[in-house]
Recover the amino acids of this structure.
């Protein structure tokens, strides 16, 4: 059977190749005739060079420059973050090469053939899964955003970044493919007294977070695919958690262990870090959800408009609590709001792109957007956030972002 | 030809099948040995479960701290560009300049042990022994005024340590904002 199809394929290839050759000759002859008949030699000096050859793995055009930048490089090797160039993106999917990074102890190099995920603790049958076994289980693909809970943290202090990347670039969105955690949990059998799952990475610092069992059974993914190929090393290769709509840190990368327990483990990242200090000295703990937020990415800070005329106002909106119901845009610092078109698909726990054709009259404008989700939540203003939480909360900032367009066409923070 | 038709059909049926509903489950995965699980399980809970045998005092920990921690966190835990402040800051959380340290902010002593064990020192996590980890934890707790110099930290004593900010955490109160107000109505 195999041999037959191979020889069939070969004969088809031969036919195709001889067809191409005949067609090529025919075209050449026609061109030759045209040139010979023309009184002016239109083609002289226009010999064209062949383009680049085939290649096994594609690269973008050398003219493209969009890059991650590190606004806050960590003091030590392996720490810190890089931000996604939101102002350069189209659509809703972040190219894997531009997905934001946040690491606590560097990116480990993991051989997938030797990597295993242990599920143990309050279960009927503790099990160890190889990557090959994980890939045999029923899989799903879902588009979800990831946002670091520290995204836009500098806005609390009134020191925003100069452009969308630097002020909100700890946000990316990918199509993730993998196994629902609920599928794995059914395999091991969850004991009645289990309430939380400690998820642990294989990075040097064994980064670990506790996840409530309800969320784990709902929509959490163990993902090995990102945008159609294997998850990138910076994003958790060979396998990571995707916890839809919840702060980035809990989406544990390089997943190696899931421990079912009856209480949260109170690791540093949930007991001390990633908590929100309020003005009264108390702190919110287990503040998981990333609330409704949006940002205009064009025209935006760091850009320059050539002059009055037609532009497209566009940006991204998202909410970790419910689907985005609407996005409103203002060009006069919030005196008037217009509901704008949402590009489909508009998926729960994914970013949605919004667009508004806009005719700039050349006067100063203050441009911003606000997201409303299906719970009715309206993205708050900076002043409302500071009034409620103070300026030391550091995490979960989701205030309306304004860009000032000057008559010169320059755009800056408003 | 027959296989070509049947295979997609079979896949459709399989995809629609709940694995849990199958009497045998997926039957994938290996059952780990007790020894393997013990070796991989580094979870420590606030009540002390998971803490190993061993122990150490602040005096034991000072030498380890100066050797392995001080280069990033400062000789007195005051913090440096490479590592956050670990000591001090009690009473500052509600002020204009809150200082979050092990002493002023962390609610559980077990979290300190667990984090040092998981992640420290930054350039060589996992290189401290259980005794050294207890000792460094004791040193940090002592220098924050939480335990006495002679108090040995062990799997029995560490969970009993009461951290100053133990009651400083409240559940996430969001949505604290986001209600539509008359001024936030969109104009048509």
């Amino acid at each position: 059977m195999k041999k037959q199809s191979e020889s069939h394929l070969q004969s088809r290839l031969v036919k195709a190749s001889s067809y191409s050759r005949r067609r090529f000759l025919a075209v050449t002859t026609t061109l030759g005739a045209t040139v010979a008949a023309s009184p002016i030699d239109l083609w002289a000096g226009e010999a064209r060079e062949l383009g680049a050859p085939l290649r096994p793995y594609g690269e973008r055009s050398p003219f493209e420059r969009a890059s991650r930048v590190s606004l806050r490089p960590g003091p030590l090797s392996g720490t810190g973050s890089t931000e996604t160039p939101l102002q350069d993106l189209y659509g809703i999917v972040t190219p894997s090469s531009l997905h934001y990074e946040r690491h606590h102890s560097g990116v480990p190099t993991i051989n997938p053939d030797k990597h295993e995920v242990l599920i143990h603790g309050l279960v009927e049958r503790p099990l160890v899964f190889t990557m090959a076994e994980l890939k045999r289980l029923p899989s799903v693909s879902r588009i979800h955003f990831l946002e670091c809970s520290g995204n836009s943290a500098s806005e609390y202090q009134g020191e925003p970044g100069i452009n969308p990347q630097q002020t909100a670039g700890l946000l990316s969105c990918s199509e993730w493919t993998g196994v629902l955690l609920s599928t794995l949990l059914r395999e091991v059998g969850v004991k009645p007294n289990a309430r939380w799952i400690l998820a642990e990475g294989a990075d040097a610092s064994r980064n670990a977070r506790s996840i409530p069992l309800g969320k784990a059974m709902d929509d959490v993914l163990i993902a090995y695919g990102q945008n159609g190929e294997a998850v990138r090393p910076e994003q958790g290769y060979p396998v990571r958690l995707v916890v839809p709509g919840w702060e980035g840190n809990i989406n544990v990368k390089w997943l190696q262990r899931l421990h079912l327990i009856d209480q949260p483990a109170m690791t540093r990242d949930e007991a001390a870090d990633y908590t929100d200090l309020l003005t009264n000295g108390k702190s919110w703990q287990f503040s998981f959800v990333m609330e409704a937020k949006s940002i205009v990415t064009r025209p935006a800070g760091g850009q320059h408009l050539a002059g009055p005329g037609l532009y497209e106002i566009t940006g991204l909106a998202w909410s970790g609590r419910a689907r985005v119901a609407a996005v409103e845009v203002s060009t006069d610092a919030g005196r008037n709001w217009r509901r704008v078109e949402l590009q489909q698909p508009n998926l729960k726990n994914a970013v949605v792109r919004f667009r508004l054709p806009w005719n700039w009259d050349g006067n100063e404008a203050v441009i911003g957007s606000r997201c409303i989700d299906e719970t009715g939540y309206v993205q708050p203003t900076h002043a409302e956030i500071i009034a409620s939480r103070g300026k030391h909360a550091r995490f979960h900032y989701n205030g309306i972002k304004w860009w000032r367009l000057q008559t010169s066409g320059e755009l800056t923070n408003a | 030809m027959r296989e070509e038709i049947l295979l997609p059909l079979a896949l459709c049926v399989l995809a629609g099948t709940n694995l849990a509903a199958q009497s045998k489950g997926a039957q994938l995965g290996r059952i780990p040995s007790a020894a393997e699980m013990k070796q991989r399980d580094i979870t420590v809970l606030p009540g002390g479960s998971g803490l190993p045998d061993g122990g150490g005092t602040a005096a034991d920990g000072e030498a380890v701290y100066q050797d392995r921690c001080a280069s990033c966190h400062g000789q007195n835990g005051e913090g440096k560009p490479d590592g956050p402040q670990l000591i001090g800051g009690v009473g500052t959380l509600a002020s204009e300049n809150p200082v979050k340290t092990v002493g002023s902010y962390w609610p559980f002593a077990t979290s300190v042990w667990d984090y040092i064990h998981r992640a420290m020192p930054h350039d060589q996590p996992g290189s401290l022994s259980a005794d050294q980890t207890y000792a460094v934890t004791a040193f940090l707790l002592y220098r924050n005024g939480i335990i006495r110099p002679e108090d040995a930290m062990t799997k029995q004593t560490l969970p009993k340590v009461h951290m100053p900010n133990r009651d400083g955490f409240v559940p996430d109160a969001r949505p604290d904002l986001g209600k539509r107000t008359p001024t936030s109505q969109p104009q048509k």
